[in-house]
## 1
Amino acid sequence: MLIDGSMASALVLTISDSASAGKREDLSGPEAGRILREAGFDLHGIEVLPDERAAIESRLRRACEEGLVLVVTTGGTGLSPRDVTPEATLAVVEKVVPGIAEMMRLEGLKNTPRAALSRAVTGIRGSTLIINLPGSIKGVRECLGAVRPILAHAVETLRQSSLGCGE
């Protein structure tokens, strides 16, 4: 995906205590990366972090400072006491974009009522879009599939290169 003549950059952050400790393989992060590459993003990496709010906030802030167009997180969006990804994201973003999270939940609800338990949020900091995804491969596929058609327009608008908005 080209934005202002260059590839739109993306980063995937898997938030998981067990994957960060090497106790399980991260499968959702690579799946998110695959989907983003297929959508035309220049993937800058897939990183695994523990469910630690300060670490998540710090990495999200750094990603925005690095000029990444899109940061996608997987995991940490449920009801468990260790699930803090939405709180970390809300502490970092300057504006919330609720429609994206709503689209993802609506898509998930087509397959399971448990999608209503997702606390995923989406927002922007500067010109970076941050999207929380569930930590399962199935959830990543459903959620990114739901929002993929609007990602190009979203990042173009953030980069102020989209012409004809509202036409």
## 2
Amino acid sequence: MITVAVLTLSDKGSKGERADASGPLIQDALKAINAEVKFYDVLPDEKALIKKKLIEYSKKVDLILTTGGTGLSPRDVTPEATMEVIDRQVPGIAEAMRSEGLRKTRRAMLSRAVAGVRGKALIINLPGSPMAVKENLAVILEVIPHAIEKIKGDLSECARPGD
């Protein structure tokens, strides 16, 4: 069982001025990989708060999925907060999400989402849009269990059968 924290970053959402559609969508999608959401929070776009939560969650769960704050608006600071707390980047995850997103909209190239490892936790930034969250998760969901196994120290071979 993969344990998960979902963190929605939204000034309006944190004030109750907008319902969070992306956080619940993430929670539902995670059922496909037998993951259990242990924590769910909605925070404002404040880098110090985001960093604090990422550090806290990284000690308690295997996977942290953020949604929101990955664009170009002045308050979008999720990637910066993530970069400041991770030990190692996993650039292929963000690259795959952007690559697939470009098939649907040219705006996908504006995403600044990052992914990385802090301790034994994988952190992945997702966009804030529910449709973009769904599309991005479709690209990465199947590799998450393998990534978590490797982060936890699994030493088995990574080659595909027949390689």
## 3
Amino acid sequence: MTRHTQKNQTQLRRALGLFDATAISIGAIIGAGIFVVIGIVAGMAGPAVVVSIVTAGFIASFSALSFAQLSAYMPKEGGGYQFAYRMVSPYAGFLAGWMWIFSNLFVGAAVSLGFAHYLVVLFPSLPVNVMAAALCLLFTLLNYVGVRQSALVNNILVVAKILILIFFIALGWSFVNFRNFSPFAPYGGFGVLQGTSLIFFAYFGYARVTILAEEAKDASRTIPRAILLALFVSTVLYALIGFVAVGLVGSNSLSQSTSPLADAVGATGNLAAVLVVSLGAMIATASVLLMAILGVSRMAFAMARNQQLPAFLSRVHPKFQTPHYSVWITGVLSTLLVFGGFSRVVAVSTFSLLFHHALVNLSASRLGVEYRRYPRFFPYVGFILCLIMMAFLSSDAWAIGILGLTIGTVYYWLRIKRQEQTQF
């Protein structure tokens, strides 16, 4: 094998502009979180679900700023993994990447289940888990073919789902019943914070584009802008949707539904609107799944290139220019996880991502003055807020999350650490 061929096997094509990059993050954000998880959160926070949504967006902004300045300083494939690897230690980097992969495998399962729940609103006889698994495999194939094709499909899906969410807000606004907001916080501040920790799941996609930094044009400018644009657009939409959904049917009805936005818009008496919103939910969750598979495969690619995962995961397909082994392994694992429970999948994913984001904030706190774009205390605030949010997650999330950390640590010290000692 020639040196030129070896280089091509671990080199990716720069094909993503600002619109593509922003759409990738929005595509990763707006999905099962707002279309399905909002129902679970309504059961915790009551009508104050709107406060949970806005609080989660505010908390996410600190981590988003850490991602933004780190991606400007270090626009490399792997995002938070590369940041922690370079700024903290190889072990911290490994854990950041490992838990990100762990989380997003669960994200893929969660959003495909969200898709299937809305699909059965239209076709009640279809089996939820089978439909979810089929979607995972379909989007694995699309990611295998190429990032440009995946980005093009994602752009179309993102525009479509934003238009449908705006339709939901516009139609539902005049049907809002303010009596549905009383009592506003029936479970007190604890319920609101519990809801905040879980709806955090709906915001994590803002940093997805950092995983693809080497496939973006002018990455040091494009990536930070895409992160902040995506978070702003998503927070505004989420707050409006939460307000309208509660106003239409109340938090109790939302909490008992597996397709809460479709049930909420059903209160208008417009059956066509139910179909449109159900379609929007399927588009939204499909878009997030597409980006989840894309992101995990690139994270595995970056870790393999640093010799922290098996080398074959960094190989790039000679025709499609995608890390094809990483793509297929990611897709198959997410497919298997769809047979778990939705709430547990979301909670485990949230724990793992909060851990990942805590390490990113720690990395940003170590940036030199000349590379810092925001006040130095911001990353520390982001780090502490991530830990606080983790404290409000379920015991299942902690148990499975710690198990994932333990497996990753054992793997690192048995294989990776020995490899590093051999090299040095």
